[in-house]
């Protein structure tokens, strides 16, 4: 995963201008900012309940609610690999009451894959990175493959027949499977779902042969013996599952690496005082030992950042993944 400074916004950082937060109406940033929040805050998640993005948001919500003094409402709005949720937040008033828990697919992959009615880098206000997400390559327990080389050998023996699932077109799991196809010289079928929860339901029933899915959705089933873990797609082994090799080392594919992450953003023009309060609340939540432990159980590593670092991270990830998306031929449903 890309190395970066994991810091909470300081007074000095707060004084810097946000690359993506140019105000829509300076007059709208007056005295109302001081009274914020005075009613419930909605965080929109672009996937169905039960997936990693949903779990992360709901884990953070109680702490954010306590810190900000208003209810946090998590709204699931699946579709388009997170683009429907992103557009809903882009079109919301920049008053701090509608926020987005974005993902690499909604913020980086979708814009590289299709023409969208908004620009992620200019129509959203970065607030903070939330977590780095551990993904795991898994197969149903009734499949015979016990290693990545065995899975690859089966795919080579039956080109175009093995199917892998993902949480949606352009998701990290989709690109991870496409990258495996390209680097291992295999041809498999991509089956997109509307979120991690639906994907896990079908892989448990054997409707798809493998998936690169979040630890949040796979670990309970791995521990129950219903899924078999083969490897992790990261550059290094994970401390959470240290016995699992990386795909790169297991399959002899040194160029294989897949990062995944979630981040909190608001509409363009979100006033700086509100951004600062949300950034501070996120930092506090992501340092809370109980939340850290809860996230770790699901393969989620706290990664708080300044708004400026998040804006930079989105730009860098876009440069990295856009060519991969084009090479994979990824197109929206």
TrEMBL record:
Gene3D superfamilies to which the protein is assigned, alphabetical: Bordetella uptake gene, domain 1, Periplasmic binding protein-like II
InterPro entries: BUG, Bug_dom1, TAT_signal
Signal peptide: none
Xref: PROSITE patterns: TAT (PS51318)
Family label: Belongs to the UPF0065 (bug) family.
The name this protein goes by in its record: Tripartite tricarboxylate transporter substrate binding protein
Protein source organism: Caldovatus aquaticus
């Amino acid at each position: 995963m890309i190395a970066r400074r994991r810091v909470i916004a300081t007074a000095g950082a707060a004084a810097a201008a946000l690359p993506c937060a140019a105000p829509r109406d300076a007059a709208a940033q007056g005295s109302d900012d001081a009274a914020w929040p005075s009613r419930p805050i909605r965080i929109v998640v672009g996937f169905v309940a039960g997936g990693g993005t949903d779990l992360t948001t709901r884990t953070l919500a109680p702490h954010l609610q306590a810190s900000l003094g208003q209810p946090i409402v998590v709204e699931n709005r699946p579709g388009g690999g997170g683009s429907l949720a992103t557009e809903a937040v882009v079109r919301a008033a920049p008053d701090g009451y509608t926020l987005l828990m974005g993902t690499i697919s909604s913020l980086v992959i979708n814009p590289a894959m299709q023409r969208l009615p908004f620009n992620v880098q200019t129509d959203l206000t970065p607030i903070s990175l939330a977590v780095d997400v551990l993904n795991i390559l898994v197969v149903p327990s009734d499949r015979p493959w016990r290693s990545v080389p065995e899975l690859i050998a089966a795919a080579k023996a039956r080109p175009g027949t093995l199917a892998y699932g993902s949480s949606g077109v352009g998701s990290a799991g989709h690109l991870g499977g496409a990258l495996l196809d390209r680097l291992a010289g295999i041809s498999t079928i991509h089956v997109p779902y509307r979120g991690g929860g639906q994907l896990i339901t079908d892989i448990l029933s054997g409707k798809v042969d493998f998936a690169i899915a979040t630890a949040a959705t796979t670990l309970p089933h791995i521990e129950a013996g219903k899924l078999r873990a083969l490897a992790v797609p990261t550059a290094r082994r994970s401390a959470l599952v240290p016995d699992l090799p990386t795909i790169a080392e297991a399959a002899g594919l040194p160029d294989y690496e897949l990062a995944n992450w979630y981040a909190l953003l608001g509409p363009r023009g979100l006033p700086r005082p509100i951004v600062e309060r949300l950034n501070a609340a996120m930092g506090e939540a992501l340092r809370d030992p109980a939340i850290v432990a809860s996230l770790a159980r699901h393969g989620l590593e706290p990664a708080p950042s300044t708004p400026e670092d998040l804006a930079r991270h989105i730009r860098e990830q876009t440069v990295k993944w856009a060519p991969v998306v084009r090479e994979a031929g990824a197109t929206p449903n």
